[in-house]
């Protein structure tokens, strides 16, 4: 590099610790987020500029930079892009980045569940956390690229399962965030078959790919933080499916842009206004990385200053949540009559409240099995879970009493919570 | 007379009278004899079948079939039951069979001609999605389940012809031959190619940061599947192309189903996108959300075409009919707002149908009077 190092790291915003691809984007971000007048929405260039504007035009004082993390709200500091950042903050940032790289590499080989919890519990507002992990991948991308094997049982399920082990040809297209997931070994058997079947869907891809050494794709360890993804995921599309992402480093720069509300990211025109002003929601309501595959589901961050996610806190789907309710656990062979609805509704009214906050359930928990349901399961012709009942057997009058699947795990299938 | 047995809940009348009732603010046709519990899925009959038949699966363990006539009348036709809530339905391409997937861990094939349903699939956990695949060299059913597997069944055999492991529980899926896409828990996203036999094509890093909720494949101008629209619980839909010339520009996300758009003083409420449907002819898409609204969007022009009025309940499912003239949406509780005191003891479920009108120059949507201009009977 030249003697005068260009701050060496990727441009990042001093006010909110976010990383960006490009200084230009960083500046746009600062203007939109930190230097925008809340009264007239005029975008200024610096903090002091904003203060002066508010004073002169609106006769109002502001005491801090909007949308800044605590400790970085100083309105007097003249920061523009990467210029003006106090040296000690720069060093602190560099140090933090390095630390993250270290812990990234270490984490790669460790059991994930605890790590994730640690990340979650780290103090500080959510976006401090966001920025730290965001920085990780850029460094860690390069090393992992060289690793041919995927550490088994690697990452927390919080990450999008990028099971790339089987997909060398695809890999380059996914350079950035091919998240390694704890892939079942079975997946490895897929690639051979998969390669052939690509047919019509693949041709454009295949052309650039051939040279890709199989082991080369990125068993990327993903940090447990969703904010990482928010930047990755918005930008991953930027990785064209071309063959020239061969150099791992080529893939790296893409991954840490600003959040989804960035101007370069096309959003519907209807929302471009609000995306600028209320663009915090995406970053603040980001889901916490769900815990590992345990019986306790992770929770979502559903509240933030600017928005509220209308969804129950647990990070399971609405259907799953609903299916756990007692009223849906029963397995009554309904004979086509539907007035069942009355009792259940009433019953639910009584039962619901205590069930509400219940995290998904331990098998033994809910069994308000009404007497009437005791019967049917036993009556079912030899259905063992996992086995296929013979077809056409007892056809159908209205329905076929399937295997008493609604029965709780202790009774039937060991797996599954249903 | 109702084929569906006693139907509690609404239907007692009084709906047509209200002028701006929030049950049906769009004044769309309400389907008669809706199920007694929330509707989880809707599907219109394929083009091979004359007429429009609508299948709806519900949390009352039943699957109902209505005929939607050209004058807007809906006629209940038949019903089948599972022993658990029905989560997904689909038609065979010739319109003779309906496949249903349920929390009772089975999927059934319902032969409409004989009105018989037999079990054709089995999983270890509720089956969340079911799709019919018609390939030149094979036909099968694809079922995605919360047991983290994706299985393919020849309906004549009790054993799956193929079973693929998913990274996590299947939350939604779509099939447009030769492409299939599955979105799972933990924001997993996998594309499959179905030629010769189904196999995993690519795992994609989710373009969304929140839990995946619904997905729909769209086609390009050559009528081949080109990508998909993925909706999350965070009021956002991602449009994602499989092989775009310029991914950074071509793929994008947009926000939807949020309240207080420009009001910055109160927190914005963000609702889940419950379902996405593409118009079969125009390629525009419809999204329905927990906020009780549906919206139509043009993904190529990247504009919003229309948003409905707000219904009093979330909209849980939607479907276009095979020629795009009819859009059905179901309004029923989706448990997105369950709190201690909000449990509705009576759920009003209704399926509305809006007739889609095309104007000469561009697409406009709204209800319309039928061509023969007899009145639409609000039932």
From TrEMBL, chain A:
CC annotations in GO: kinetochore; nucleus; spindle matrix
UniProt region (Disordered), positions on chain: 84-161, 248-296
InterPro entries (UniProt xref): Znf_C2H2_type
GO MF: microtubule binding; zinc ion binding
Composition-biased stretches (Low complexity): 128-139, 152-161, 274-284
Stretches with biased composition (Basic and acidic residues): 85-110
Xref: PROSITE patterns: ZINC_FINGER_C2H2_1
Compositional bias ranges of the Acidic residues kind: 111-122
Cell compartment(s), UniProt: Nucleus
GO biological process assignments: attachment of spindle microtubules to kinetochore; mitotic spindle assembly; mitotic spindle assembly checkpoint signaling
Domain C2H2-type: 13-34, 37-58
Main location: nucleus
Top-rank taxon, per record: Eukaryota
Entry keywords, A to Z: Metal-binding, Nucleus, Zinc, Zinc-finger
Protein name (record): C2H2-type domain-containing protein
Organism: Oncorhynchus tshawytscha (Chinook salmon)
UniProtKB/TrEMBL annotation, chain B:
WD repeat ranges, renumbered to this chain: 79-120, 120-163, 273-307
One family name in Pfam for this protein: WD40
Gene3D superfamilies: YVTN repeat-like/Quinoprotein amine dehydrogenase
Top-level lineage group: Eukaryota
Keywords from the named record: Cell cycle, Cell division, Cytoplasm, Mitosis, Nucleus, Repeat, Transport, WD repeat
Subcellular location: Cytoplasm, Cytoskeleton, Spindle pole; Nucleus
rRNA processing is among the record's keywords: no
GO CC terms, sorted: nuclear envelope; spindle pole
GO biological process: cell division
InterPro entries: WD40/YVTN_repeat-like_dom_sf (IPR015943), WD40_PAC1 (IPR020472), WD40_repeat_CS (IPR019775), WD40_repeat_dom_sf (IPR036322), WD40_rpt (IPR001680)
Family: Belongs to the WD repeat rae1 family.
This protein's name: Rae1 protein homolog
